[in-house]
Fold:
Amino acid sequence: MAEEQYDLALVGSGPGGYVAAIRAAQLGLGVAIVEEDRPGGVCLNWGCIPTKALLRNAEILSLFRRAEEFGITVQGLTADYAQAIRRSRRVADRLSKGVEFLFKKNKITLIRGRGSLIGPTALQVGNGAEAQTVKAKAVILATGSEPKSLPSVPIDGQRIITSNDALRLETTPKSLLIIGAGAVGVEFADIYAAYGVQVTLLEALDRILPVEDEEISTLLTKSFTKRGIALRMGTKVLSAAPGPTGVVVEVEGGGKKEKLTADQVLVAVGRGAKIKGLGLEALGVALNNGFVKVDGRQATSVPGLYAIGDLVGPPLLAHKAMAEGVRAAEVIAGEEHHPPVDLASVPNCTYCQPQVASLGLTEAQARAKGLPVKIGRFPFQASGKALALGEPEGMVKVVAHGETGEILGAHIIGAEATELIAEFGLGKTLEATVEELALTMHAHPTLAEASLEASLGALGRAIHL
Amino acid sequence: MAITRVVMPKLSDAMETGKLLKWLKKEGDRVEGGEILAEIETDKADIELEAFGSGVLRKILVSPGTDVPVGAAIAVIADPTEDISGALGSTAAKPAPTAEPKTGETVSISPSSASQTAPAVEPEAEPTPTGRVRASPLAKRLARESGVEITVLKGSGPGGRIVRRDIEAYLAQGKRPAPVVRPVPLRPAAATAVGPEVEDRPLSSMRKTIARRMAESKATVPHFYLTVEVKMDHAWGLREQLNRLEGQPKVSVTDLVLKASALALHAHPEINASFAGESIKIHRRVHLGIAVALDDGLITPVLRECDAKSLSEIAGEARDLTERARTRKLKAQEITGATFTVSNLGMYDIEEFSAIINPPEGAILAVGSVVEQPVAEGGQIRIGRRMRLTLSCDHRVIDGAMGARFLQTLTRLLEEPLRLILSS
Structure:
């Protein structure tokens, strides 16, 4: 059995793992990274990136459908969903190769196979004769997460599917029932609806995107309803079973039980840490709510063993994993530039149409904390750029501390919301107040002006309202 | 492991340079943390400079008699084998770095004695050379609203930037704005005698500071004065009794006034206060400055936390501070941070005088001599002991009635002096 010795070994090459590996290599460590699938993890291969490719297709298709509005006539418009899936695979492949290239450039050893711990800082990769031992001075676990399922809704990969299946299947059903109106459910609702599928979104909680500010949920509800997406909030799924006329889903909402039928059911009820078979139990690695427990240095309860990303708990987002990866690598290399990752400042983005992006506290959360709150809102209806683009939907909402002007939260729904949120992220990092945002000159006309106006609004000084 | 660059400490807001008087260690001497390295003359006092890191005094960068800008390196302490060329690279002319020290290197000085606060809220001993405060907009705003003097904080953000958590940590300590490094209270008091002929006598740095600060105080602080006469018969008797006790420190009239002031300030925190532009800072602890006359000026050592000290503790510590003030053996933090000053000229038979406030303090108490005089009581004339106290108040902080109420409390404490012993 081959044996190799490194400064740092990582398990999992998703956005957390590959970023940590590169950062560690930059700091002079000898790094090996173990990956059973393709470099890039869920994000690149089965998550963020391919869905963004599909969402772009959906967006372009919607624009074609709206061509009349712009005085453009389109004849014989057809959209091939299989082509959209293939395009998304090409984008994912290209990025995955990009990650491999970065490994080479940084002299990081990519070891293919399934890694499991055989000691705090020792791994076994693969089984049997091909098994290999990787020893290191430190190990970072970055195996990520996988879709959760409901016991009463058995996944078959064809008629009852997860997001992973959805990204492979080149055909669309006539009707689709999505269980879960979080970011994943909402994005797929958007994609399939654009391709003409009759979509119903089910959510056990009382609103779409339950983690977002209520006003944002309300606006998205209106927008989705207008597009013909059926929303059934406060609805629990009791069971689902494929039948001759489609999948029959038994639901309960408002005290009533009901049977719904759809050609396909997509289960998007959240994700759980991928900890099975990692060898955590034998080492006594402490867990917290099903996720690996870490401290502000990303260290687990076992010395020398670190963990990052989805594995260590919510929010399950690639950019959070990347920040934790940099943090862990720098801790291990003894060069700490990156402070402990501040989970209160992680931006949350959903790439449906209209896009939703947010940061920090919702208005309700801020009020529940008993903080003095000032709200600033600016609808894109009043933005020249949004009107010129033909995207008047949505708004920017700023939640500011009533006394200090601290940016407590920012909530955006509308075109390019996911790009616009970065300004608030920088503001929060620099501890800028709404006063500084309001004093920052924003180019005219831009969508970003809405952020300026919302900040002014929180100060009671909005101009264009 | 560690290389310590010893730099000229900044001991007050006003201090820009310090004169290196004498090295007490030679190059090659072994130095332990806390040992006295050198003596430094500042505009306020001569200060003993303590070593912060342990090791060997590898290099002395500044010879005695040299004026050194605040923050400039004056020596390097390191292990005998350590390569110190990096630390030597930044010579005495450069200001000391204020950013975070690199790994394995500590950039630190300590003007004697133990540090007083947690690192995150340590007073910023060396503000950036430009005087610009590196702080986030939110931190500035919070500081302004809670009356925290932001310049005394040390930032924990990137590059030493002061961020919200630094203000919160500072406030959480309940310290409130009683910054540790503050302008030294200086008293006008006994003007030195002037010779008959004109003589051009260069100003000592202490005299320069007195001139500047007292002029500043009189020009910018609106003073008003309140005088009371205190019946000192009982206090005098108590003092004689106490001083007959063996094994107890001798108690002076000043000690009684200090103890009474501490109790009265505790009862009237609005007098233990400073004007801070946008707010009034109420100091929750009582740190009393005691004006001590020197041959060529005066100095105000600070008796800390008097509100929590017994009369005998105050007497013992006041004596020690006064003696060391006269022999110029005070440590840096023993001359900073007073919240109220007591100046007694009674020993010079001054019956009554009014003192100039030491900014940023809000008031100062001038103590006259205890005199025997005929007093009318119940239609009889008898001989009683009387003492006059004059409180100078900053009218931006204290109003007449507030000052008067404080003096009432103070008078009562001195007239019923057992209260000084009952409440420790």
